[in-house]
Amino acid sequence: MSLPERILIVLAAVSGLLGVGLSAAAAHVTGGNLTTAAQFLLFHAPALLALVALSQIGAVSPGFARLAGFVLVLGLALFCGDLSRRAFSGVALAPMAAPTGGILLMIGWILVGASALLRR
Fold first, then answer.
1. How many Å from the N-terminal Cα to the C-terminal Cα in the chain?
2. pLDDT score, position 70
3. What is the model's pTM?
4. Domain extent listing, the chain
């Protein structure tokens, strides 16, 4: 894979990172709801599939890609789980679940970018 293609993967990761941050901020402004949780899950599903595909063709570092994928999944579980439970029952999933999940999602996106730059 050429350097320009790897740079595009990094820029996609930056877009994901910023999208998570802005979406989390919007959830706080609007009080958080199921729409935010649903959008996060729907947006990250194809990203996870693409990450596996990029790993399989050797476009990204497989180790970093796997780590990024599992960090993203854990972040989704905490963030979306918390928003969903609050929407349905009015009770938090766990203290600080949503912010922790959001931070994990951002770290996951950083790892996605690193997987393109650190490919062997």
1. 11
2. 94
3. 0.85
4. 3-117
